[in-house]
Write a structure and sequence with these properties.
Length: about 110
Amino acid sequence: MATDAMESLRARREAVVNAHIEAEAVKHDLTATLATFRHPRYEVPSVGVIADGAEAVEKFLTGVLGAFPDLWVKPFAFYHADDAVIVECRWAVRSLDLLAISRLRANQWKSRAS
């Protein structure tokens, strides 16, 4: 059973996540979005994107919001670890700018070869 302190920590973490989603997907405020991170980092496995650091995350979000100006995000599960909270969410858009999407993908492509 979780202690009161653990419940309080979980509630604070979820409040930060909700503030992040509000800043990113509702207000499209990159400064406020970045302020919710201790260390900005996005991992989006479904499209193979890893954006690590404030500059990379800002570039990624600028591309996403440019391609999807009507983006919405709905969290549906929070998983708490000792030093993290992982959030599963659904996101969707009503319109697609295929040229912006291709630029977003091209800007995020990284390859390693030996």
